[in-house]
Amino acid sequence: MFNVDRPEAAPASLHTRKKYDGQDVYDALDEVFFSKCYLCETKEPHDINVEHFDAHLGDLNKKFDWNNLYFVCSRCNNIKGAVNNNLIDCCDEGQDVFRAIKHLPPVTPYAKSVQVVAMYDDDKTIETQELLDKIFNSEHTVNKKISGSFLRRKVFGQYNLLLDQINDYYSPVATQEDKVRAVEKIQVLINRSSPYSAFIRWCILGDEELNPLLVDLMN
Ligand SMILES: [Zn+2]
Predict the structure, then answer these.
(1) Which conformational region is residue 111 in: left (phi greater than 0), alpha (psi within -120 to 50 degrees), or beta?
(2) Residue 139's pLDDT is what?
(3) Handedness of CA 107, 109, 110, 113 (dihedral sign)
(4) Centroid of ligand 1 to alpha carbon of 178 (angstroms)
(5) Confidence class of residue 141 from pLDDT cuts 50, 70 and 90?
(6) How many angstroms separate the alpha carbon of residue 155 from the centre of ligand 1?
(7) Residue 144 clears pLDDT 80, i.e. is over it
(8) What's the whole-model pTM score?
(9) Is residue 134 a contact partner of residue 140, using CB atoms and an 8 Å limit?
(10) Beta partners for residue 51, in sequence order
(11) Pairing of β 48-52 and β 69-73
Protein backbone atom coordinates (compact mmCIF):
# COMPACT_ATOMS: atom_id res chain seq x y z
CA MET A 1 0.00 0.00 0.00
CA PHE A 2 0.98 3.61 -0.46
CA ASN A 3 -0.11 6.84 1.18
CA VAL A 4 -2.32 9.25 -0.74
CA ASP A 5 -2.57 13.03 -0.29
CA ARG A 6 -6.19 13.83 -0.95
CA PRO A 7 -7.04 17.49 -1.65
CA GLU A 8 -9.64 18.93 0.71
CA ALA A 9 -11.99 20.34 -1.91
CA ALA A 10 -14.50 17.79 -3.18
CA PRO A 11 -15.17 17.56 -6.93
CA ALA A 12 -18.23 19.65 -7.87
CA SER A 13 -20.48 16.80 -9.00
CA LEU A 14 -20.59 15.34 -5.47
CA HIS A 15 -22.49 18.39 -4.22
CA THR A 16 -25.44 17.49 -6.43
CA ARG A 17 -25.69 14.07 -4.73
CA LYS A 18 -26.76 12.38 -7.94
CA LYS A 19 -23.69 10.37 -8.82
CA TYR A 20 -20.67 9.52 -6.69
CA ASP A 21 -18.50 8.38 -9.59
CA GLY A 22 -18.84 11.23 -12.08
CA GLN A 23 -16.03 12.09 -14.47
CA ASP A 24 -14.64 14.83 -12.20
CA VAL A 25 -14.50 12.42 -9.24
CA TYR A 26 -12.85 9.79 -11.39
CA ASP A 27 -10.28 12.28 -12.73
CA ALA A 28 -9.48 13.66 -9.28
CA LEU A 29 -9.00 10.16 -7.84
CA ASP A 30 -6.96 9.08 -10.85
CA GLU A 31 -4.54 11.91 -10.16
CA VAL A 32 -4.11 11.51 -6.40
CA PHE A 33 -3.98 7.72 -6.51
CA PHE A 34 -1.44 7.89 -9.40
CA SER A 35 -3.80 5.82 -11.58
CA LYS A 36 -3.24 2.91 -9.18
CA CYS A 37 -5.51 0.58 -7.25
CA TYR A 38 -4.98 1.48 -3.59
CA LEU A 39 -4.94 -2.17 -2.57
CA CYS A 40 -2.88 -4.14 -5.13
CA GLU A 41 -1.04 -1.10 -6.60
CA THR A 42 -1.66 -2.18 -10.18
CA LYS A 43 -1.21 0.88 -12.37
CA GLU A 44 -3.86 1.64 -14.98
CA PRO A 45 -5.72 -1.68 -14.50
CA HIS A 46 -8.11 -2.49 -17.33
CA ASP A 47 -11.06 -1.92 -15.03
CA ILE A 48 -11.03 0.56 -12.17
CA ASN A 49 -13.85 1.51 -9.81
CA VAL A 50 -14.65 4.33 -7.45
CA GLU A 51 -15.43 2.56 -4.19
CA HIS A 52 -16.61 3.44 -0.72
CA PHE A 53 -13.90 2.83 1.85
CA ASP A 54 -16.56 2.65 4.52
CA ALA A 55 -19.49 0.80 2.90
CA HIS A 56 -22.35 3.31 2.66
CA LEU A 57 -25.18 0.76 3.06
CA GLY A 58 -27.65 3.38 1.87
CA ASP A 59 -26.30 6.22 4.02
CA LEU A 60 -26.24 9.18 1.61
CA ASN A 61 -23.69 11.11 3.69
CA LYS A 62 -21.24 8.24 3.31
CA LYS A 63 -22.22 7.65 -0.29
CA PHE A 64 -21.32 11.18 -1.46
CA ASP A 65 -18.52 11.88 1.01
CA TRP A 66 -15.42 12.81 -0.98
CA ASN A 67 -13.21 11.45 1.82
CA ASN A 68 -14.91 8.08 1.57
CA LEU A 69 -14.22 7.54 -2.14
CA TYR A 70 -11.23 5.42 -3.17
CA PHE A 71 -9.73 4.17 -6.43
CA VAL A 72 -9.72 0.37 -6.66
CA CYS A 73 -9.39 -2.20 -9.43
CA SER A 74 -12.43 -4.38 -10.05
CA ARG A 75 -10.63 -7.53 -8.87
CA CYS A 76 -9.71 -6.03 -5.48
CA ASN A 77 -13.14 -4.44 -5.19
CA ASN A 78 -14.70 -7.82 -5.79
CA ILE A 79 -12.51 -9.54 -3.17
CA LYS A 80 -13.05 -6.76 -0.62
CA GLY A 81 -16.81 -6.40 -1.17
CA ALA A 82 -18.61 -4.88 1.79
CA VAL A 83 -16.91 -7.41 4.08
CA ASN A 84 -13.71 -5.56 4.89
CA ASN A 85 -14.81 -2.39 6.55
CA ASN A 86 -12.03 -1.94 9.08
CA LEU A 87 -8.85 -1.35 7.09
CA ILE A 88 -5.85 0.91 7.59
CA ASP A 89 -6.44 4.14 5.69
CA CYS A 90 -3.99 5.18 2.98
CA CYS A 91 -5.50 8.69 3.01
CA ASP A 92 -4.77 9.18 6.72
CA GLU A 93 -1.57 11.21 6.82
CA GLY A 94 -0.94 10.03 10.39
CA GLN A 95 -0.76 6.42 9.20
CA ASP A 96 2.30 5.04 7.40
CA VAL A 97 0.50 2.32 5.46
CA PHE A 98 3.62 1.12 3.66
CA ARG A 99 5.46 0.28 6.89
CA ALA A 100 2.35 -1.28 8.47
CA ILE A 101 2.35 -4.25 6.06
CA LYS A 102 5.48 -5.95 4.84
CA HIS A 103 5.28 -7.02 1.19
CA LEU A 104 7.92 -9.42 -0.13
CA PRO A 105 8.02 -9.96 -3.90
CA PRO A 106 7.78 -13.34 -5.64
CA VAL A 107 11.25 -14.74 -6.31
CA THR A 108 10.24 -16.26 -9.64
CA PRO A 109 7.57 -15.19 -12.17
CA TYR A 110 5.41 -18.21 -11.38
CA ALA A 111 5.87 -18.23 -7.61
CA LYS A 112 2.75 -19.70 -5.96
CA SER A 113 2.51 -16.94 -3.41
CA VAL A 114 4.01 -13.73 -2.07
CA GLN A 115 4.52 -12.86 1.59
CA VAL A 116 2.29 -10.20 3.10
CA VAL A 117 3.03 -9.65 6.80
CA ALA A 118 1.28 -7.45 9.38
CA MET A 119 3.89 -5.38 11.26
CA TYR A 120 1.48 -4.36 14.04
CA ASP A 121 -1.14 -6.38 15.88
CA ASP A 122 -4.06 -3.93 15.94
CA ASP A 123 -7.38 -4.97 14.35
CA LYS A 124 -7.06 -2.72 11.29
CA THR A 125 -3.56 -3.85 10.37
CA ILE A 126 -4.53 -7.52 10.79
CA GLU A 127 -7.68 -7.14 8.69
CA THR A 128 -5.75 -5.30 5.97
CA GLN A 129 -3.06 -7.98 5.94
CA GLU A 130 -5.72 -10.69 5.59
CA LEU A 131 -7.36 -8.86 2.70
CA LEU A 132 -4.04 -8.24 0.90
CA ASP A 133 -3.07 -11.87 1.40
CA LYS A 134 -6.32 -12.87 -0.32
CA ILE A 135 -5.71 -10.37 -3.12
CA PHE A 136 -2.21 -11.62 -3.88
CA ASN A 137 -2.52 -15.29 -2.95
CA SER A 138 -6.18 -16.24 -3.21
CA GLU A 139 -7.05 -19.58 -4.73
CA HIS A 140 -10.71 -19.37 -3.68
CA THR A 141 -12.01 -19.80 -7.20
CA VAL A 142 -10.43 -20.90 -10.47
CA ASN A 143 -10.82 -17.36 -11.78
CA LYS A 144 -9.15 -15.82 -8.72
CA LYS A 145 -6.37 -18.39 -8.88
CA ILE A 146 -5.55 -17.44 -12.49
CA SER A 147 -5.84 -13.70 -11.91
CA GLY A 148 -3.74 -14.00 -8.74
CA SER A 149 -1.02 -15.74 -10.70
CA PHE A 150 -1.17 -12.99 -13.33
CA LEU A 151 -0.92 -10.33 -10.62
CA ARG A 152 2.14 -12.00 -9.07
CA ARG A 153 3.80 -12.14 -12.50
CA LYS A 154 3.27 -8.39 -12.82
CA VAL A 155 4.79 -7.81 -9.37
CA PHE A 156 7.72 -9.99 -10.39
CA GLY A 157 8.18 -7.90 -13.54
CA GLN A 158 8.55 -4.78 -11.43
CA TYR A 159 10.86 -6.59 -8.98
CA ASN A 160 12.94 -7.68 -11.96
CA LEU A 161 13.42 -4.03 -12.92
CA LEU A 162 14.76 -3.48 -9.41
CA LEU A 163 17.10 -6.50 -9.73
CA ASP A 164 18.58 -4.98 -12.90
CA GLN A 165 19.49 -1.86 -10.94
CA ILE A 166 20.72 -3.85 -7.93
CA ASN A 167 23.01 -5.82 -10.25
CA ASP A 168 24.32 -2.61 -11.83
CA TYR A 169 24.89 -1.00 -8.44
CA TYR A 170 26.70 -3.96 -6.89
CA SER A 171 28.59 -5.03 -10.01
CA PRO A 172 32.30 -5.55 -9.24
CA VAL A 173 33.07 -3.33 -12.25
CA ALA A 174 30.53 -0.58 -11.42
CA THR A 175 31.95 2.93 -11.66
CA GLN A 176 30.76 5.72 -9.36
CA GLU A 177 28.72 6.97 -12.30
CA ASP A 178 27.07 3.56 -12.73
CA LYS A 179 26.14 3.53 -9.04
CA VAL A 180 24.65 7.02 -9.16
CA ARG A 181 22.62 6.10 -12.20
CA ALA A 182 21.38 2.87 -10.58
CA VAL A 183 20.29 4.76 -7.44
CA GLU A 184 18.44 7.31 -9.59
CA LYS A 185 16.51 4.51 -11.29
CA ILE A 186 15.74 2.85 -7.96
CA GLN A 187 14.33 6.20 -6.83
CA VAL A 188 11.80 5.93 -9.64
CA LEU A 189 10.88 2.38 -8.63
CA ILE A 190 10.32 3.26 -4.95
CA ASN A 191 8.26 6.33 -5.73
CA ARG A 192 4.68 6.09 -4.48
CA SER A 193 3.47 6.62 -8.03
CA SER A 194 5.20 3.48 -9.34
CA PRO A 195 3.44 0.11 -9.55
CA TYR A 196 3.83 -2.26 -6.58
CA SER A 197 5.96 0.30 -4.72
CA ALA A 198 5.42 -1.44 -1.36
CA PHE A 199 7.13 -4.61 -2.63
CA ILE A 200 10.05 -2.64 -4.04
CA ARG A 201 10.43 -0.45 -0.95
CA TRP A 202 10.58 -3.43 1.40
CA CYS A 203 13.49 -4.82 -0.64
CA ILE A 204 15.34 -1.53 -0.13
CA LEU A 205 14.43 -1.35 3.58
CA GLY A 206 16.21 -4.68 4.02
CA ASP A 207 19.44 -3.59 2.28
CA GLU A 208 22.10 -2.20 4.59
CA GLU A 209 23.83 -0.12 1.93
CA LEU A 210 20.89 1.13 -0.18
CA ASN A 211 18.47 1.79 2.68
CA PRO A 212 20.43 4.73 4.17
CA LEU A 213 20.68 6.27 0.68
CA LEU A 214 16.97 5.97 -0.04
CA VAL A 215 15.07 5.78 3.25
CA ASP A 216 14.22 9.48 3.29
CA LEU A 217 12.48 9.11 -0.07
CA MET A 218 10.12 6.43 1.19
CA ASN A 219 7.51 8.77 2.66
ZN1 LIG B 1 -6.32 -3.96 -7.07
Answers:
(1) beta
(2) 77
(3) positive
(4) 35
(5) confident
(6) 12
(7) no
(8) 0.95
(9) yes
(10) 70
(11) antiparallel
